[in-house]
Specification:
globular
Length: 502
Amino acid sequence: MRNGPNWSQEPIYPQNAHWFDGDGMVHYVRIENGVAEYGRRYIRTRGWEEEQAASKAVHVGMKDLWIIPDVFYPRLAAKIAQAVQHGAPDAPFWVVQNKNVANNGLVYHAGRLLATWEAGWAYELSTDGELASRGLCDFNGTARDNFFRPWRENFSAHSKTCPVTGELIYHGYSLIGPPNVMLGVVDAESGSIEHRVTVPTTRATLQHDLAITGTRTIILDQPLVFNQPRALEKGRPFDFDANEPIRYGIIPRHGNAEDVVWIEEPAPSTGFAFHVVNCWDDPQNDDRIVLYTSRMPETCALGMAESNAALSTSANGSYDASVGCKDVGHLHRTVLDVKTRSVVESVRVGDIPSDFPTISPRVVGQPSRYAYSVVPQDSFLNGSDVAVHGDDAIPLFDKVIKHDLASGTVASTYKLPAGRVCGDIIYKSKSECSSESVDVSENGYVVVLSHAVDADASFLEVVDGATLQQVCEIEIPVRIPFGFHCAFLPAEVLSTWRSQCK
């Protein structure tokens, strides 16, 4: 399954529309007995239903954060009315003119399929073939155990499932008011939030992802900072500040705010990572944490931010200010010491740019050797970009690479067939028991949803995790819009699937 943006209505301000703004749509390919079935369905969020009823857009996008009276006041009234009707809002108090589009991630946990967004609560979808929207997931009422909680908190884009305990660890953050990060742990059996903590921070930053080890949670407080005054003046809402440090907040998984250990990585050698590759407690030193991310030296957040860094990534992996700001990551290794509160190591691993990393779900938070990611097209790196609803470029990828974290090398590469590009990829283990001759983190398949650039066709490509050789591909005779993140649902979850999705 793949989630991503797909506008159901023409934006109010098309010139300001951003890739992140489109309504969430889930696409799926179901394979059974050698037969593949494709389907798709909009996520019926409250904002989507409002706009369907109005037959037009009534919300604005993430680049329209100044107060627009004709939008702000009707949407504020609607938000309050919906909160009264449903018992809670679907996004915190500071999300009014925008809507929770639930278009970023998909996660299956404790019998629920959840669609997530950057700054709102997760929507639950059925797994019976209709992908029916069941409304907000309240985690058995624990997400709204008091009146104010759903107005202050949220469930952000990425979460992590611990393969040992089965717990789901999530985070949210606040851009308005006292800056803080909310961390929660969802029980594997009951699906209820069993632990939560609010951690004060020193600045309001975008925190797209988090990291976990077998015992800890790591907050990534990076220098992509919300600029409220400029946002209210119709400017880009975020700043990437190369003069600011990265701050890592390390906390026991069930710890309290006073248990957080903060470690700063000083500027100017920092950067920003949208995505975590993996993270674990160092087996040789209990005080140390090994963190791998896809880290870029600067970011413009795909048009959402301004950068004061005189750095840009060129096609050969060097930095050239003449190229302009690019959102291009590289595999990066960071070692943190909680005892000395210091960064022991911070180094870029290799010269090949890549992002959208994936690993075996069986090694999340555990020491692992292999990881996979995708490489941007040369056209994105050299400035010939693809744009969606405006001038903001989006990266398209045409290679899958396999990282050997032990040696710091690229073990193998899979080049997509000519004329195709892809986005996020996902790893699927072959079985619960891997052979002794194959590392657990490569005993599976890498699944790639690719898009034909010049045709209305898409493809599901299945690649062997050990060799990166294509095993099979399935042609989907429709154009699937470029999107975000994927999930895999096993057959037993889909036992009641009725093949009715349109």
